[in-house]
Amino acid sequence: MDGGPQSDDIVRALAGRSGVDLIVTGIGPPPGTSDPRPQLVYALGATPNGWLTSTSTRRDGIITLADLTATLVDQRRDGGTSTPPPIDGTPVQVVPGRVTAAAVQDHLGAVDALSYAVLRGDLALGVGGAALGVLYLLSVRRGWSRPARVVAAFSCVIPAAMMLTGAVPWSETSQPGLVLSLVVAGWAVLLTGLTLVAARRHAIPIAVVGAAVTVAAFTADAALGAVMEPGSMLNSRPINGGRWYGFGNVTFAVYAATTLLLLGYLAHGLRAAGRPRAALAAVAALGSVVVVVEGWPSMGADFGGVLVLTPVVLGLLLVRSGLSITGSKVVVAGAAAALTATVVSWLDWRRGPAARSHLGAFVQRILDGDAQDIVIRKAVAASHSVLTPVGIGSLAAGAVVWVLIFRRLLPPLAARFTTLRTTAAAALTTSALGTLLNDGGVTVWYTLTAAFAVSVGALATERGCHRTSVAEPTSAREGK
Fold first, then answer.
1. CA distances from 459 to 160, 164, 198, 199, 413 (A)
2. Of 232, 234, 360, whose CA–CA distance to 295 is shortest?
3. Is-contact 44 92, C-beta < 8 A?
4. What letter would DSSP give residue 122?
5. Angle made by CA atoms 87, 90, 95, in degrees to the nearest 5
6. What residues form DSSP beta bridges with 94?
7. What's the burial of 453, exposed, middle or buried (CB within 10 Å: 0-12/13-18/19+)?
8. Which of 30, 173, 228, 418 makes an SS bond possible with 166, Cβ 3.0 to 4.6 Å?
């Protein structure tokens, strides 16, 4: 209830009554302000002492308003039925721990940093990226191959560096924005060096090594339960109240782009070595692993990602096997995607109300006949992201980028990466399907487009550096 001006008196009176569980919380900005930050929630009578949490967030010290509703409903049921009501949210739980006023203040500051300090990290990354862009253009213009390769490698590992920022508790420091900027820069420099060394030692394109590093970082995080994602620069800001666990739309888009490039190069290398069956097996194995990682409830927990990646991977398998893609096969691939997502969601649903992710919760909503609200809400969110000036501009800019990729960048690279055109077609398909089937909408389009364009640009850069290094000795001999 809202006590209005008498809130203090009401809270004091209820807190003094025995046998009463009292929950005090703010539900929005204080009167007369537009402060959108998360509000404090305090539960008196909770046992044992500790931090509030729920399966809706899977984060200690963070719950949602929907969890409060579910908690109240659960109290009223008094154990009369085991079937949860068709509402969002799950009952609040308590993680035992010592909670003090100072600890609460620090925790609120850390959550606030995940929403606001991360913007300073993005700004620092943008300024650094702009400076490297100038260096790259200058290097290309003057024929400096080494700086151009370094910038290309840096660009390819940035997503991995942004994910790995979640391995450091930067949000809990006194200067979170500064620490985050230093952390992402440190990871980027380290991964750039490793990528350049690995590319040279194994004679593999920088873009492919960068893709492998990114896929490895994302897969490792998912295997650990997506523990780095909440504090990474790729995660949704808590202030938006979006995804609290698993992989979000930005992470999915980058994961898909780098996975497809890696699948394409594996197929190219194995086919060039005269092992077409191994190429088919590699695509099937890695593609299946990524689909499972993306959708499994304790990992990526991304329903839309499974729907998008499954038919794309199956399409790549058809192409690699030499079979033509027909309308009936497209339908079968779509059905396989729906079946995969259904099986994963059903397995999650069987774990019970207290352990389900949003995948299993959606199955329960279907059983309750209340799933259409979620579908409509996500469809509206996706359409709203597209039908805005920014959304339309992103679609137009992305279309131009894809035209440039297919017409200008791919033809010169075809000889050294024979499966690149098919890979690019798969990436374009994924970006289009992801835009249609995810509530992030146009976010998937421009993120995946940018990630794949960076990889192709790195391939083109390395080809140009190779041509320059071959031409220089020839020119020197001619001068003699």
1. 18, 24, 15, 12, 8
2. 360
3. no
4. H
5. 170
6. 52
7. buried
8. 228
Q: How far apart are CA 425 and CA 315, in angstroms?
A: 10
Cα 193 to Cα 173: distance, rounded to the nearest angstrom:
28
Q: Hunting for tokens 């050294």 — which residue is that? A: 416
Using DSSP's 3-state secondary structure scheme, residue 408 falls into helix
Q: Mean pLDDT, consecutive 10-residue segments, the chain of 480 residues?
A: 81 83 81 78 80 89 89 70 66 88 89 90 89 87 84 94 94 92 94 94 93 95 89 86 84 94 92 87 90 88 84 83 68 77 81 72 74 73 80 91 93 89 93 85 91 93 66 46
Does residue 214 contact residue 157 with C-beta atoms inside 8 Å? yes
Of 296, 290, 338, give the one whose Cα is nearest residue 313. 290
| Residue type for position 314 | L
Residue located via tokens 């609040």: 92
Report whether the peptide linkage leading into residue 48 is cis, meaning its omega lies within 30 degrees of zero: yes
Would you say 279 and 321 are in contact if contact means Cβ atoms under 8 Å apart?
no
Query: Which distant-in-sequence residues (6+ apart) come within 8 Å of 178 by Cβ?
Result: 120
Residue 98, CA distances (Å) to 53, 103, 190, 291 in order: 15, 9, 37, 40
Distance of CA 316 to the CA centre of its chain: 23
Cβ proximity of 312 and 260 under 8 Å? yes
d(CA 151, CA 450): 16
Element (H, E) at 52: strand 50-53
What is the crossing angle of helices 117-142 and 442-479, to 10°? Answer: 30
Smallest CA-to-CA distance from 255 within 367, 326, 380, 160 is with: 160
Task: Report which of 88, 92, 111, 114 is spatially closest to residue 357, judged by C-alpha positions.
Answer: 88
Assess contact for 257 and 427: CB atoms under 8 A. Answer: yes
CA neighbor of 247 nearest in space, from 1, 474, 443: 443
CB atoms within 10 A of CB 384: 13
Determine the Cα–Cα distance for residues 345 and 333; give it in Å rounded to an integer.
18
Amino acid at 188: A
* Residues ≥6 apart with Cβ < 8 Å to 348: 297, 356, 357, 359, 360, 363
**3-state SS, residue 25:** strand
